[in-house]
Amino acid sequence: WVIAAFAMAVWLMASALTGFEKNRLQLWERVLRPTVGLATLLPTMTIALPAFAAGAALILLHRFLGGEPSPIESKSSAVSAE
Questions:
Q1: Which end of the chain, C or N, has fewer beta carbons within 10 A?
Q2: Any idea what DSSP says for residue 69?
Q3: Model pTM?
Q4: CB 25 within 8 A of CB 69
């Protein structure tokens, strides 16, 4: 559990700090991700387990709802189209 919780917390906080995951993160995602990530690291399972589930939901929602593509992704698709 500790390894999974730590991995989730690092993923959420790193993506919030960079502002990107698959696509550009919205402001509300950048605020919510570190909060949920830190809550995942709490020793109380009554808080950490729902926070872990919320973190997974944030990642899945971002992956399936799309959003504005990252600048690198935009450039690579433009180059491959030429």
A1: C
A2: B
A3: 0.75
A4: no
